[in-house]
Amino acid sequence: MTRPPEPDPERPDPERLAPRPVRRPPVDPGQAATFGRPQGVHGAFDVLHAPDSTGGRRGNANGAANGRGNGTGALPLAPPPPESLTEAFSRPPGAEDVVLQRPHDDDGRARGRDGADAPLWSERADPWRDPAAGAVLAGPAVATEETPEDEKERPAGALLSLPELLFGRRVKPLALGLLAVIALVVGAGGGVAGWWLADRGEELTGELNIAEATAGKERPAGSISDIANRVSPSVVSIEVKSGQSGGVGSGVVIDPAGYVLTNNHVVATAVKDKQAKITTVFTDGTRAEAQIVGVDPKTDLAVIKVPIANPVVIEVGKSAELSPGDTVVAVGSPFGLENTVTEGIVSALNRPVTAPGENGEPPVTFDAIQTDAAINPGNSGGALVDSRGALVGINALIRTVSAGEGEGGSIGLGFSIPIDQAVRISESLIRDGQVKHADLGVNANSVAANTSEGAQVQNVNPGGPAAGAGVAEGDVITKLGDRTVRNAAELTVAVREHEIGEVVPVQLVRQGRQLTVDVTLGSD
């Protein structure tokens, strides 16, 4: 086994790093003067010095040998105090031997001024005080038996008078009297003001005394209220629902079997859609589903039937007995507002009106009763009754003005189908389920708009009644039977006043000449 070679002190160990060179930056003179050792002190600790008999300070042997300190071998002394402080805090002249504590004997015990031993405390002093203490500052703070000053009984003072108690000082009697007068005046004024306010308050509030009528309001027979009470139970609201759409109108019960007369356009949706549902609503809230009996699109009439036992039936009058100016009352459900009653007069009779047909059907034309009783959408199919409450018409149309995108309302021009014509058509619908009208066999237009010059024939149906009588295209019909024809609508209603197969005289104008021909009316 071989030993490793001895390290060569001359050659550095390659595995060790050489020591880092010591860096000694230069010392700032200012910092050296502030933080450096005092002059003559070379170590971290210096020897202590004691004052010598000469008033200086002497060091120990080592300090003298080493020569530390000032020129005498001691640290420099503090500078003497200022003369002002010496004069303020030094003993006065002649009192150099005066001390705060008593002089001591050789054995360390304090003695009195006369040299005799004197106790440092009296009987009232603290017995536990050290008798060898060098100074006595004061006696112990113990309670005395003397009565405190605040507990001593003081002599009673003079009692305060009323002015002094109220005002804090004396007041002259005259001032007191004047003050009392002022207080009396203020109190009296407040009382008067309170009485006045209370008296005025009774005029605004108080107990309500109502003078009640001795008897109820009289409603004589024939009044509007009496008519409404008798007619309303026989007028129903008709709701038609088809899918997500629907409409509302009115109807009149005309037969105890549950037959209800209304307008064709009220139930037209149900006629087209067999899945549609018709519901009638009576004034007492009873709801019943209705079925269509028959419709007449040309006169805008329809009959439906409801399964109600003993319904209230309206009394039917005669429209032929009406005269312009007669009072009439309209009952129905305008805009779905059930049992609405409006009053008016008969504005005109035998007023031919025409309206577009429903679902592509032919135009509606009938001889109407014109009234200024308010009629609005929803009144259709409702009742128009006279001053007796008898049914004289079925409300059907209104003339209105444009209301933008909305639906117009009543402007005092309402039209009803005369009940004489409506009853005749309803009988045919109930009996046969359909109705036939007399027909002339021509298509005609008014000679000019808004004129009363007659109805001009546009074409003649081959083989029809007019063709057989010699009526030609271009002829202007001015009269049919006993009725003057002013326009195309009036020609239609004049023909329908007659029965099928009836022979009626027709007066016409052809190339400036007036002719009269007899026409045997056919069926439509």
TrEMBL record:
Residues 1-131 are annotated as: Disordered. Residues 1-18, 102-116 have a biased composition (Basic and acidic residues). It comes from the Bacteria. InterPro entries: Chloro_Bact_Ser_Proteases, PDZ, PDZ_sf, Peptidase_S1_PA, Peptidase_S1_PA_chymotrypsin, Peptidase_S1C. GO terms for molecular function: serine-type endopeptidase activity. The keyword Membrane applies. The keyword Transmembrane helix applies. Keywords: Hydrolase, Membrane, Protease, Transmembrane, Transmembrane helix. Residues 426-512 form the PDZ domain. This is Serine protease. It comes from Amycolatopsis antarctica.
